[in-house]
From TrEMBL:
UniProt entry keywords in alphabetical sequence: Isopeptide bond, Nucleus, Ubl conjugation
Entry keyword Oxidoreductase: no
Annotated Acidic residues bias: 1268-1286
This protein's name: FA complementation group D2
Subcellular location: Nucleus
UniProt superkingdom: Eukaryota
Family, as annotated: Belongs to the Fanconi anemia protein FANCD2 family.
Entry's Gene Ontology molecular function annotations: DNA polymerase binding
GO biological process: double-strand break repair involved in meiotic recombination; homologous chromosome pairing at meiosis; interstrand cross-link repair; mitotic intra-S DNA damage checkpoint signaling; negative regulation of apoptotic process
Family annotation (SUPFAM superfamilies): ARM repeat
Cross-referenced CDD domains: FANCD2 (cd11721)
Listed InterPro entries: ARM-type_fold, FANCD2
Keyword Kinase: no
Length: 1308
């Protein structure tokens, strides 16, 4: 052996001691004073030498005991023990040793034969220093000892070490417990992490003071995949501690503790995917709203904050689902921000990202929650976050997506109203939206200018914003482009509203604005008037916008008086001979000189007052009067009954003799007249005086009569473009909504000239109908012309509550001699209900899903006043009218029941008033559509709207039976369903039956007991014979659409789709084939030769949907499952075979087209879902498989014949389906071959040729080729060419199992 290096040492211990001697020989010199121990060799060399010295000693293994005894004796001195725990230093003269060396204790722990004994010595020594804490020198002996155990290269007995550490935790003080627990992941090997996690879980239940270190340790442990399913349980004490802290007022110490807890969770989910998934599952499993706590939201924010994409997407999806289902509500979000604002600030990037995603959702409840995230973030966080929030909202506004823009603008307006001082700092961001106004709707422009003007002219006035807005407005008002001039008018009026608002008055009680502000307001009003007076459309828009301003803003009294004085002085309509609705009034009054005014406007375009401004100007005048007289319109009530100077409407009966210009003039006159009456009805509908109400109803009667006249006139005036009535949209957009102009009819060109007869208004009443012997002109529907009439106010719809109105007329001696009665008739009811339905369609529909930016739609044109109301306000108003709607519904029911009783069960009895019957049918139809549209509002799914929904359902349930005790929502739904179900016996038309069915589906929601009654009800409708009033069966596109919708609902809600299809196709169609040409099925009277296509398409569509939902087969499915699914496929294939064979009888082109299209889809679904089932079931259920394939073969053969028929007809619409269908047929052949090969029967499969045939099976001779005989002799394994006229055929396969033989022919 080589000689050991000489070791120079001073003051060393007794060399005779075994412990000291062995250390010296191995390379460590112990120091007696406070100097660190010296090492002269590398630590790895030392450990190897010491191991060899002990192992090769003659006294082994007793020498180990002696060595350990020497160690115990040596470290009895605390100073020497400290030296053993501190790092050794290399000998100064030796450069071959590293500058840093481990402590003596750690080096000894690295020797395997000494490790267990040294650990025992350390754990025995540790209690001496357990309560000493930190010494004056700054050393903590216990902490240093624990550090010696970390990151050892190998642990001999890891389980024993873990047990000793846990025993030490049980008796150690709190600080040492925390130190030991947090060090466990660094001390123990991975094999012990699972066991130690369970121990920590138990310890956590016992001592919540150790929550943070235990969670910290758990986040660093390497756990098996099976354990994290219980991880949320491990974190429960953390949640409990969090909840306990949440009960106390916020303070810094509590927030610090919560931050530490959340940091622990954040670390765990970031580095352990399984823990992240476990948290996600734990939050997902909470199904009650009250069980969700603040910690759930915080965890979702943590999961979204982590970098993993799957975690972010999962958190987004889970939050959206929870909000949609109402489990996580805005109240919980507010508590989170209120109690933990400091913690939420760290999640701001995630909060902003989530708010952006939620605000783009098509669901209103999700959008509302995203808006709350924005508002709370702006309120609770610092200026940086506020700036980011405003910037994000501006981005939403500039996106061009309608629903997103609406939501973002609404949020900006709320922030401006609630936090004006904070928002004033970011006004420059909001101003940037002015560059994107081209894509905004009028209502969005109003909201934008409201926000900007509130910031510019609020308490913290921003002069540069004011200047920029004035520049923009002047530029737009002077623009020759109508679009930009409209934007300027709308924006300027909104600026006036903010400047003249009473909240900025120096003395709000007296309503006095500062002089400078008042001068600015009047100056802007004068500018508007001067810029709009030359253009009638602009002037009318100015009047409308100013009227809206008076209706929605509380303006300064001085400004109101200035507007009212200016308007009343410039009223442009001259006085004329008085013609009033009241004959007892004294002579002398006013009349609307409409006919001369229109004639002068045509002759002198732009030089005189335009009749376009008539209705807008009156609306502005009326609102000025309402504001100044607190709703009293006595000063202008003469306008309600004053007549209009029109022409004699009998000229409409001679419309063919008029020239085109005369017809268009007459149409314009009627449009202006109807718009005037609509605006007059809007003005006086709120008046309580019975005489006023009578006049309003009379005006509605005038409107309905004039609309009927206008329909006949428009039918003779194709291509006519009506005058504008709504001025906040582009006229080109409105023109695109009109029906296309029909080619002009040949006829005489009349030279008659209209004479301006001063007809009394009483002549324009519904009673003055044309003589019955004349053939009335064919009219057009006014539905396309709706945007060209003035919008009806929502308050006017309350007129449906009016019953019989009457008043007494006085003679010259003031004696009542006659009593006049006015009642709302069916025509007026249809008029009001139709408008109500359209308003609900627009106001209560779901927030629009993502649309193409900047797409123009005319659906909401003409609803400017409605858009200024929230959906909740509209729904509340509807609920107030619901009792009246139910009364009208019951009246319709009684009307039709009386007809049925009088005519022995039929509606079209002798003496039936056809016009009245059609109106009553329309009333019932509209009532059902109104209820369905209102109850379909997705706002009712929000928790905040549930009381409103219950109020509506209580009205319906109360009509059935009065209930003393309050009912639950489920009981209300059930009683409401029963109430509406009672109307099934009185629906007169197929479309009404569909509306009632759709209403019941909406009402039933998810209640199984109610939804189970839908299918029997629809079957009842399908089995009913529907007859139109003249006695003919209902026909036409509308009835076909209703019938198809009812059939789809029946097949969707029936318990057995396959049985229902077989019933209709097997029973109903068979009965139809045995009837005459005009006959119908006895079982299903709605099934006749005209409606066969509707039934056929509906059955094919629903059959394909049904088989697509059959679960796919799996190898491990039980025998019972396979048998059940095989039976289902057998029934489906049989129904398919019946439907395909019907083409032989009903061989019209549309029927063949449906069969080719959905036959291919059925075949593809069978290949995807049915053939795998046959693969697994072939051996066990050979007979069922054989029967199924035999039936399916007949269907595929008929499909092949249809392909040949389509080629013969050379019909492009049919041949387009042929290539894809033939491909699927060939795939079917080879898929069967694959199934046989899988079941070891491939030798029974070969190919041949199949001739082309027509629908009746006759061979198509024109397509026979000379190569047919040669093709039949070719090898059976060759595939047919794509252009070949011959088709592939699987001739036969034989499969023998035992003594059974099965022969099946499969054609393609």
């Amino acid at each position: 052996e080589k000689k050991s290096r000489s070791i120079k040492s001073t003051g060393q211990s007794n060399v005779d001691d075994v412990f000291t001697r062995l250390l010296l020989e191995a390379g460590i010199c112990l120091k007696a004073d406070n100097s660190p121990n010296e090492i002269v060799v590398d630590q790895a060399v030392f450990q190897k030498r010491l191991h060899n010295l002990l192992k090769k000693s003659p006294q082994y293994p007793n020498i180990i005991k002696e060595f350990i005894s020497g160690l115990e004796s040596y470290i009895e001195d605390q100073e020497k023990f400290k030296n053993c725990l501190l790092p050794c230093v290399p000998q100064a003269l030796d450069d071959s040793v590293s500058s840093y060396q481990e402590s003596l204790v750690r080096l000894l722990l690295g020797v395997e034969i000494l490790q267990s004994s040294v650990l025992g010595v350390l754990f025995e020594k540790l209690p001496e220093f357990m309560f000493d804490g930190v010494e004056e020198s700054g050393l903590n002996i216990c902490h240093i000892v624990i550090n010696q155990l970390k990151w050892l290269d190998r642990i001999v007995d890891c389980k024993d070490l873990a047990a000793k550490l846990l025993e030490l935790v049980a008796v150690a003080p709190l600080e040492l417990q925390r130190d030991i627990i947090t060090s466990l992941p660094e001390i123990l090997e991975d094999s012990q992490h699972g066991d130690i996690a369970q121990e920590l879980k138990s310890l956590l239940q016992q001592n919540t003071k150790l929550t943070v270190p235990i969670l910290d340790a758990l986040s660093s442990l390497s756990l098996s995949p099976a354990l994290p399913s219980s991880m949320p349980c491990l974190y429960c004490p953390c949640c409990k501690l969090f909840l306990r802290l949440s009960k106390f007022p916020p303070d810094n110490s509590k927030e610090d503790c919560v931050s530490l807890l959340l940091d622990v969770i954040k670390t765990a989910v970031r580095f352990q995917k399984t823990i992240s998934e476990a948290w996600m599952k734990a939050v997902e499993n909470v199904v009650e709203t009250d069980e969700h706590k603040v910690i759930d939201l915080l965890v979702l924010f943590i999961l979204h904050t982590t970098n993993a994409n799957h975690s972010r997407r999962g958190a987004e999806k889970l939050l959206r689902i929870k909000v949609r289902e109402g489990h996580i509500r805005e109240a919980l979000l507010q508590r989170t921000f209120r109690g933990h604002g400091q913690v939420m600030r760290s999640f701001f990037p995630s909060i902003l990202s989530l708010a952006q995603i939620l605000l783009r959702s098509p669901e209103t409840c999700v959008v509302s929650f995203g808006g709350s995230l924005y508002k709370l973030a702006f309120t609770a966080f610092d200026s940086y976050c506020q700036q980011e929030v405003v910037g994000s909202l501006v981005t939403h506004v500039c996106s061009g997506l309608l629903g997103e823009v609406d939501a973002a603008l609404e949020l900006l307006c709320e922030l401006v109203t609630q936090k004006p001082e904070e928002m004033a700092r970011y006004a420059v961001f909001v101003k940037g939206i002015l560059d994107y106004m081209d894509s905004l709707t009028p209502q969005q422009i109003r909201r934008l200018f409201y926000a900007l003007s509130s910031l510019a002219f609020g308490k913290d006035q921003s002069s540069h914003i004011q200047d920029d807005m004035h520049i923009v407005l002047r530029k737009q008002l002077s623009s020759p482009v109508p679009k930009y001039r409209r934007i300027g008018i709308i924006g300027a009026v909104m600026v006036i509203g903010s400047m003249a608002s009473t909240r900025y008055s120096t003395a709000p009680q007296t309503g006095s604005l500062p002089k400078e502000r008042h001068r600015q307001v009047t100056g802007l009003l004068e500018l508007l008037r001067s810029c709009t007076e030359a253009c009638p459309e602009s002037a009318a828009l100015y009047y409308d916008e100013l009227a809206n301003l008076l209706q929605t803003y509380k303006l300064d009294l001085q400004v109101q008086e200035w507007i009212g004085k200016t308007i009343s002085l410039s009223f442009p309509f001259p006085a004329s001979v008085m013609y009033n609705l009241d004959e007892d009034e004294s002579q002398g009054g006013i009349a609307i000189n409409l006919l001369p005014l229109l004639a002068e406007d045509v002759q002198h375009k732009g030089e005189r007052v335009s009749p376009l401004c008539l209705a807008p100007f009156f609306r502005l005048l009326r609102l000025c009067e309402e504001k100044q007289d607190h709703g009293d319109l006595e000063e202008i009530d003469a306008l309600l009954g004053c007549p209009l100077i029109l022409t004699d409407l009998d000229v409409v009966e001679k419309v063919d003799s008029l020239s085109k210009a005369e017809r268009e003039f007459l149409c314009s006159l009627l449009f202006y007249t109807i718009s005037w009456f609509r605006e007059v009805a809007n003005a006086f509908c709120r008046q309580k005086d019975p005489e006023m109400k009578m006049k309003v109803v009379s005006r509605l009667q005038n409107i309905t009569y004039l609309q009927a006249v206008l329909e006949r006139l428009l039918g003779a005036t194709p291509g006519f473009v009506p005058p504008l009535a709504n001025f906040d949209c582009d006229s080109s957009e409105l023109s695109a909504l009109l029906p296309p102009a029909a080619p002009p009819k040949k006829g005489k060109k009349g030279k008659g000239v209209l004479t301006a007869h001063k007809s009394r208004l009483e002549e324009c009443v519904p009673g003055s109908e044309p003589p019955q012997d004349k053939e009335p002109a064919v009219g057009v529907s006014l539905a396309s012309y709706r945007p060209f009439f003035r919008e009806l106010d929502v308050e006017l719809l309350a007129v449906i509550q009016c019953g019989l109105l009457s008043r007494s007329l006085l003679d010259t001696e003031l004696h009542s001699h006659v009593r006049v009665e006015v009642q709302l008739g069916p025509a007026e009811l249809v008029f009001l209900l139709e408008d109500m339905w359209r308003k609900l369609e627009v106001g209560l529909t779901a927030a629009p899903a993502k649309r193409s930016p900047f797409r123009k739609s005319g659906r909401s044109v003409g609803f400017s006043h409605l858009h200024q109301r929230s959906p909740r306000e509209i729904a509340t108003f509807w609920v107030q009218l619901l009792p009246t709607l139910c009364t009208h519904l019951e009246n319709c029911h009684n009307h039709f029941q009386a007809l049925l009783s009088a005519n022995q069960g039929v509606l079209d009895g002798p003496g039936l008033n056809t016009k009245e019957h059609q109106l009553m049918c329309s009333v019932l139809q509209l009532l059902l559509q109104i209820l369905r549209t209102a109850f379909s509002w997705n706002g009712f799914t929000e928790h905040e709207q549930r009381p409103l929904l219950k109020s509506a359902l209580e009205v319906l349930a109360g009509r059935l039976k009065e209930h003393e005790a309050a009912l639950s929502l489920e009981e209300l739904i059930r009683h409401s369903f029963e109430y509406l179900l009672n109307f099934r016996s009185s629906v007169p038309t197929l479309s009404s039956a569909l509306s009632l069915t759709q209403l019941l589906i909406v009402i039933s929601a998810n209640q199984t007991s109610c939804r189970g009654q839908i299918a029997p009800l629809v079957r009842h409708f399908l089995c009913q014979e529907w007859v139109a009033p003249p006695g003919e069966k209902e026909r036409g596109v509308r009835d076909s659409t209703s019938l198809q919708a009812l059939l789809s609902i029946y097949l969707e809600y029936t318990d057995d789709v396959l049985r229902a299809v077989e019933d209709i196709a097997g029973t109903g169609v068979t009965e139809l084939m045995n009837t005459t040409k005009d006959g119908s099925s006895k079982t299903f009277p709605t099934l006749n030769r005209q409606t066969f296509l509707v039934f056929y398409r509906g059955m094919m569509v629903e059959l394909e949907k049904y088989v697509h939902m059959i679960p796919p087969a799996r190898q491990g499915d039980s025998n019972e499952v396979q048998s059940e699914r095989l039976l289902t496929w057998n029934l489906a294939v049989r129904d398919f075979h019946i439907l395909v064979n019907l083409v032989k009888v009903f061989d019209s082109r549309p029927v063949i087209n449906v069969c080719l299209k959905y036959g291919r889809l059925f075949l593809e679904t069978f290949l995807k879902l049915g053939m795998p089932l046959l693969d697994f079931s072939f051996k066990k259920h050979k007979e069922d498989v054989q029967s199924l394939l035999k039936t399916f073969q007949l269907s595929t053969r008929q499909l092949h014949h249809m392909c040949g028929h389509s080629k013969i007809r050379q019909d492009t619409g049919l041949t387009n389906h042929v290539p894809a269908l033939k491909k699927s047929l060939e795939q079917f052949v080879y898929r069967v071959k694959a199934m046989l090969a899988l079941n070891h029967c491939q030798e029974a499969f070969w190919l041949g040729n199949l001739k082309n045939r027509d629908l009746q099976g006759e061979e198509i001779l024109s397509q026979r080729s000379q190569a047919d005989d040669q093709d039949e002799e070719e090898d059976a394994s060759q595939l047919p060419e794509e252009e070949s006229s011959d088709e592939v055929q699987v001739i036969c396969y034989r499969h023998k199992v035992g003594s059974h033989k099965g022969n099946v022919s499969l054609d393609n």
